[in-house]
C-alpha cells in the first residue's frame, strides 16, 4: 500500500480532530486510511546511582523491580494503544470510511514515519501530542521534527475538525509554492471548495504575473479560485485575510529556503502553525 492517508494518533485531545480530518481526506482523495500509534518504550527516568549507602544485593533487587515496572508500563502502553486504534477505526467507519487500517509500532514517532514515508500520500497529525505543553501558542516538538524530516504533505489539525468550505494558499512564487499550486490542481482534495491564492507584498508586475499563473493553473483544473496581493507583515496580513474571507483551511510551503530546512521550519510557517486555529496543509 503506497498511496494512503496515514493518521498519527496518541492520547492527546487532538486525536479526535486527527481522526475526523483523516477520514475526510481519505474520502476526498479516494485513498485508503491507516491509523498509526507509536509506543515509545525508551526509559523516561534515567537510572540513578544506587551505589554507596545500600548494599549490592539491595541494589540488584531494586534494579530488578525497576525492570519489572518498565515491563509493566510497556504492556499498559501497548494495550492503551490498541484501544485508541480501535476507537479511531470505529470513528472513521462512522464517518464513512470503508475498512480503515491500524498499525502499532514501537520506537519514536519521527523514526517510524521516516521508515514508512514511502507508503504515505498524506500524513495527518495533531498540533501537539499528549506530552506537549497545553499552551495554545506552543507547537509540539514531534510535529516540528516530523515536518523537518518527512518529504510528504502534512495536514496539521487542531483539536476539532470540520470539512473546509474555503481554503487559502499562501503563495510567494517560490518553487515550493508553485509546486503546491500544481499539486492542488491535480488533487481531488479540494474539489468543489473555493481556493484563495494570496501573495503578501507590493502590487508589482512580477507579483501580478505570478498570481495570474496560479489562478489560471487552478481554474484550468476546474477549481473555483480567486486571488489577492496584500501589503503588510506576512503573518498578520495572512491572519487578517483568513478572518475577512472565512478561511477554514490554510495551505503553506513548509520551508522558505532549502538550505535551512534541516535546522528549523521557516519562521513564517512556524508562526502560523503556532497560532493556527484551523487546519494547515504543509506542502513539501
In short:
This protein has helices spanning 15-29, 56-94, 109-116, 141-149, 175-186, 205-220, 234-245, 267-275; strands spanning 4-8, 33-39, 101-106, 120-126, 154-157, 167-170, 195-200, 225-230, 249-253, 280-283. Strands 3-2-1-4-5-10-9-6-7-8 form a ten-stranded mixed sheet, sandwiched between helices. With 284 residues, the protein is α/β, with parallel strands linked by helices.
Search tags:
10 strands; ten-stranded mixed β-sheet; 284 residues; alpha/beta; 8 helices; elongated
Describe the model:
There is one protein chain. The protein has helices at 15-29, 56-94, 109-116, 141-149, 175-186, 205-220, 234-245, 267-275; strands at residues 4-8, 33-39, 101-106, 120-126, 154-157, 167-170, 195-200, 225-230, 249-253, 280-283. The chain has a ten-stranded mixed β-sheet, sandwiched between helices. It is elongated and about 80 Å long. By secondary structure, it is an alpha/beta fold. It contains eight helices and ten strands. The two termini are 21 Å apart. The longest helix has 39 residues, at 56-94.
Measured on Cα atoms, how large is the radius of gyration? 22 Å
Number of strands: 10
Give the strand order of the largest sheet, numbering strands 1, 2, ... along the chain. Answer: 3-2-1-4-5-10-9-6-7-8
For the largest beta-sheet, the strand count, sense and barrel status come to:
10 strands, mixed
Mean pLDDT: 82
Give the N-to-C terminal Cα separation. 21 Å
Helical run tally: 8
> Helicity, in percent?
40-55%
Q: Give the strand content.
A: 15-25%
Q: Uncertain spans, ≥5 residues at pLDDT below 50? A: 43-48, 131-139, 256-266
Structural class: alpha/beta
Shape, per Cα inertia axes: elongated
Order of helices and strands: EHEHEHEHEEHEHEHEHE
Amino acid at each position: 500500500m503506497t498511496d494512503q492517508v496515514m493518521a498519527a494518533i496518541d492520547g492527546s485531545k487532538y486525536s479526535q480532530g486527527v481522526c475526523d480530518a483523516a477520514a475526510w481526506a481519505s474520502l476526498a482523495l479516494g485513498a485508503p486510511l491507516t491509523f498509526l500509534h507509536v509506543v515509545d518504550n525508551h526509559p523516561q527516568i534515567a537510572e540513578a546511582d544506587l551505589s554507596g549507602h545500600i548494599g549490592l544485593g539491595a541494589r540488584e533487587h531494586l534494579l530488578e523491580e525497576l525492570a519489572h515496572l518498565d515491563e509493566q508500563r510497556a504492556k499498559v502502553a501497548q494495550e492503551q494503544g490498541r484501544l485508541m486504534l480501535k476507537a479511531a477505526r470505529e470513528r472513521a467507519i462512522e464517518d464513512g470510511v470503508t475498512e480503515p487500517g491500524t498499525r502499532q509500532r514501537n520506537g519514536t514517532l519521527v523514526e517510524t514515519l521516516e521508515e514508512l514515508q514511502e507508503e504515505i500520500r498524506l500524513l495527518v497529525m495533531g498540533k501537539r501530542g499528549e506530552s506537549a505543553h497545553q499552551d495554545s501558542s506552543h507547537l509540539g516538538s514531534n510535529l516540528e521534527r516530523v515536518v523537518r524530516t518527512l518529504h510528504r504533505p502534512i495536514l496539521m489539525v487542531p483539536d476539532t475538525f470540520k470539512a473546509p468550505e474555503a481554503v487559502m494558499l499562501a503563495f510567494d512564487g517560490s518553487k515550493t509554492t508553485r509546486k503546491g499550486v500544481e499539486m492542488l490542481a491535480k488533487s481531488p482534495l479540494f474539489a468543489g471548495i473555493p481556493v484563495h491564492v494570496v501573495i503578501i507584498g507590493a502590487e508589482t508586475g512580477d507579483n501580478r504575473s505570478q498570481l495570474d499563473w496560479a489562478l489560471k493553473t487552478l481554474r484550468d483544473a476546474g477549481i473555483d479560485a480567486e486571488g489577492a496581493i496584500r501589503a503588510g507583515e506576512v503573518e498578520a496580513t495572512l491572519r487578517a485575510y483568513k478572518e475577512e474571507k472565512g478561511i477554514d483551511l490554510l495551505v503553506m510551503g513548509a520551508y522558505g529556503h532549502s538550505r535551512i530546512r534541516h535546522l528549523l521550519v521557516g519562521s513564517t510557517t512556524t508562526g502560523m502553525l503556532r497560532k493556527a486555529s484551523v487546519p494547515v496543509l504543509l506542502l513539501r
